[in-house]
Amino acid sequence: MNRSGFRSGLRRLPSRTSVYVTSFATVVALGTVALISPSQAASNKPSFSINLETATVAQLQQALSAKKITSEWLVNAYIERIRALNTHGPGLNAVRVLNDDALEEAKQADRDRSRGRVRGPMHGIPVLVKDNTDIRQLPTTAGAQALANSYPKDDAFLVKRLRAAGAVILGKTNLTEFANFTTAGMPSGYSGLGGQVLNPYDVSQTPSGSSSGSGVAAASSLAAVTIGTETSGSILSPSVANSLVGVKPTVGLVSRTGIIPIAASQDTAGPMARSVYDAAALLTAITGIDPEDPATATSKDVVGTDYTAALSKDALKNVRIGVVGTPTGNQGTAFTKAVDVLRAQGATVAPATVDTGGLPASILNYEFKRDLNAYFARLPARAPMKTLDDVVRFNLAHVGEGSIKFGQTLLETSNNINLDDPATKAAYEADRDNGISGARQRIDSALQSGDFDALVFVGPGSAGIGARAQYPSVAVPIGYDPANGRPFGMTFLGTAYTEAKLLAYAYAYEQASHEWRPPSVINPSLFRCAQPGKQPRDCAP
């Protein structure tokens, strides 16, 4: 049968859940596909169903013999499936949903530009946002099947800031489910609703962190820039793994209103980009004081900062940098080279020591239940989930549908906490306050002991202690492992609201080193058969 007739039949298929960024092949991949003959297509009779994922040769032969399908149709069906699952994309699975209004938003940005109403460096720039962040008319799912149809009342505060800056909201990225607070051992980049995100530099390796979709989308240029969120490492770690610049801001610089939380004491959203300038421009757009997020009041002295203005190739001159850690092997070689670049650009570099262990117990379990329930309370009355307990129960009721493939130990542990118990609350508050003050004291003393302007760590090494201290970090690429092409990075850490300095140091390093390479250069085999235009003859269809 002809392809147009086949596609028209597929469009009539009911969908069990809302599917975005859809195509014929994604429908095929999800399960049963309606196969219809040319005569059925013409007369719109009920379709004949067969599941290509499980069909045996005998079943296909039976369908052929009964003239329910043709070989031509079957070949086309398999080609479409191959394109979707094997070749197209190349199946990175980083984008979960597109914004239906993105094209109209772009047209409006063009109209504004023609009238001289350009609102800054983000005007007309497509941005992908992590799918734990509210965008009007799109569900906010955190990758969970339980939230597949959970629609917010309005945009998150940071999305409103993006729109005010003229940015185009392109859509949402996949993520580790509930920002990697579902169960111990959850693979980074996996969610029950969105599936597994793949690292474009090496698909055998983790895309890392819960902002894996944002990291892969940024690295693969699926949008100009992306937004990630971090509680402890979920911006910095995928930024390093995907050779990006990632900014984990001071808690309070970027509003969390309209973002599915883990813990208010540590949560923040931030930029993920392929260059320091891009990250700085995006950070400039999303900051601001939000009356609904009291933490943002602490950013009053830096409100309105243009983080691109501080960028300078000479920013490292007469700066003192404390180097934490001494990695070995190929990573050590790359890190040593990066430190040499800092020194060559005028920085004084010396070893520094930061004790990152032995802090009070994590406060995430307590805050997750409290803060998630508060997020749910903001949703419209029709929202499918009202409490964390609802999510846990939903998952147990839908295990057979893959709701909790790897379990839900973290959800259950948090759900079992009695938030109203005075002793539990007192212990939590002590751990929270001592954790913040202890982490800050360790960072501050390391900076003061060497009169350092910032500390630099190998990889995302600043993530844990920086998160407890609520301090900012900026990750930047420093090269690739010569043995396998996997990215290396380093991270600058400073005290509260020193983002402008950290970005300037990262920019000076970036401009001197020129280390970044796109994934298609480092891992060409993944992209060789996925480029637009005519494909090499030896590529799969």
Automatic annotation (TrEMBL):
Which Pfam families does the entry mention? Answer: Amidase (PF01425)
Q: What positions does the domain Amidase occupy?
A: 74-385
* InterPro entries per the UniProt record, alphabetical: Amidase_dom, AS_sf
Q: What protein name applies here?
A: Amidase
Organism, as annotated: Streptosporangium subroseum
